[in-house]
Amino acid sequence: MRAAIGVRVPYITAYDEERLPYRLTFARDQEATDGWRLCYADAIAQDWMFGVLWSRQGLHRRGRPLWKLVNTFRQRNAMLRLLCQVCGGPATGPDGRVSWVLANDPSSAVTGAGYTNSPPTCRSCVPEALATCPRLRHDAAIYTVGRVELYGVIANVMRPSPAGPAAVEANAVIPLEAFHRLEYALAVQLLVTLRDLRKTEEAVGE
Asked: What is the pTM of this model?
């Protein structure tokens, strides 16, 4: 899909008309660490994955692109199925390795020593990504990845209050083994760890 200005809107980008109204609450859950779990007032089983509640959004890609935001479902889908964040197609090459563009060295603190919230980018979309994304234009490197492991989520952490769930922390990084924190969180992006990285080109920069 392309925006009016002629630049393709990446697969994972959110749109303003995909926002959905919802009401959060805390509900009793015998399997939760302290007996409570964050949920929607009209919760269904599909609202959870990996033990955490996920943000609800539409999938129709209508309205104005929100260039700095990602659609939660499409970002998670791209990570789980190794889809290109630009076109939404497979990012795995004939050799079984996955093409990935990172804005900086994966050993740096910014990418959490190898984990990232940025989905892969297929080889055919790499030039477009480098040319149009300001974050990648001057400081990026292209890799192939041999293995991808689930790490955690970026989430908004809540706590119970008399007025309902109250925000405690925004965009917190929570590993999937942090069960108690996940029970109080609303996940917005999936994080994965990249293994067996091989740089294919020199870092991009002026």
From this structure: 0.89
